Amino acid sequence: MDLPRKNQVSLRGASAREITRDALLEKVSQERELRSYVRRANAAALFIQRVWRRYIVTRKTALRIQEEWDILLNQYSSSISATWISNSLLRPFLFFITRLLTQNGRIQMRESACMQNCFKIILESINSPDPRRNFCSLAVGSLEERRIWTYQAKNLITLCTSILAVYDKSDPAILVLTSLAMRLLVALTDSKGWKMAADSDRSAADMASKNLVLFLGSESGFYVSTRKYIMKLDFPLPLQKNVTMQTDDRFLITASMITLALRPFHVIFSDVYNSALEDMHRVTKCYILSLLTVPWLVQRLPAILVPALKHISVLSPCFQTLQNHQNRNIQKGFVATRQFPRWGGF
Q: What GO biological process terms does the UniProt entry carry, in alphabetical order (predicted)?
């Protein structure tokens, strides 16, 4: 048998023509790749369908809960309990507002109205001296009440932080909403303003608020949102003398933002958190990277708020963190020099 005839394969039953083994292997490989591609395409299509169905179902559920929440709010009366706020007001609110804001990508008018109404009710509750009506009384309640309160308070902090990041001075509704969000952040992170706390519960209330302050400074993204807000503020040019004064709402937002930005430093240097070095480094790094690197920072802020940024309790940990970072870089450079000496062994 000749050599070309020997390397050919007969496709009996399909065709009388004979092809080479290499052509047959290539054909089989192409068919295998095609089947693999079809399987991956089908799997991708099913995944996209599942994601899209979940998106549609989640959005429909969020809109339905929002409608029910609006109906519930129309029946709102001033004599409500803290448990009602936690279970009936905040639980559905946090569900639909986070889903709708994530899917829409921006704050719609309806969501803005819902957040304003919710923030007003919570602020009114926090200012109530009656422990049964004060939302923050749950922070010193049972173990389950404290757990739920901490979860809801952290979600409120994250929500208010995201509102600060999308601040728009040309939108009056966003201006009012941001002002309410800053007031709520200040109220939640200051246990001294919780009128419900008795002397026996003061230590537990202080600990709960300090945990929220540390969350605000390290995990909520507050400093990043603060930078975005400050970058939107006006600042005078070198030859500009007349600077437009900030309105009351804008000044309230800026003052509250500075207060909240400095509050983690006060907590870290308190007696309870003297040993929290990791928290101090984490907060200080976020503060330095997000705030101290803002161009024209002092010129953008009201002059009355600038001295607070220069206080030793704020600048000292910043300088200490920078010095430690510089020392680590010097040590790394020294180790690298010892490992890779210059020519001649010196």
A: protein polyubiquitination; ubiquitin-dependent protein catabolic process
Asked whether residue 34 is assigned to any structural domain, the reply reads no
For the chain, the domain total comes to 1
Q: Higher-confidence residue: 198 or 338?
A: 198
**Among 134, 122, 126, 65, CA closest to 93:** 65
Show Cβ contacts of residue 277 under 8 Å, excluding neighbours closer than 6 positions: none
pTM reported for the whole predicted model: 0.78
Q: Which two tokens stand for residue 300?
A: 């953008």
Task: Classify residue 317: in a domain, yes or no.
Answer: no
Domain membership of residue 281 as a residue range: 44-231+247-310
Query: CA 151 to CA 286: how far, in whole Å?
Result: 23
Using CA atoms, how far apart are residues 42 and 6, in angstroms rounded to an integer? 41
pLDDT tens readout for residues 252-284: 899 999 989 888 888 777 655 454 566 677 788
Q: Residue 315 falls within a domain, yes or no?
A: no
Distance CA 241, CA 66 (A): 49
Q: How far is CA 168 from CA 98, 229, 250, 251, in A?
A: 20, 9, 11, 14
> Is residue 167 included in any domain, yes or no?
yes
pLDDT of 15-35, one tens digit each?
546 678 888 888 888 899 999
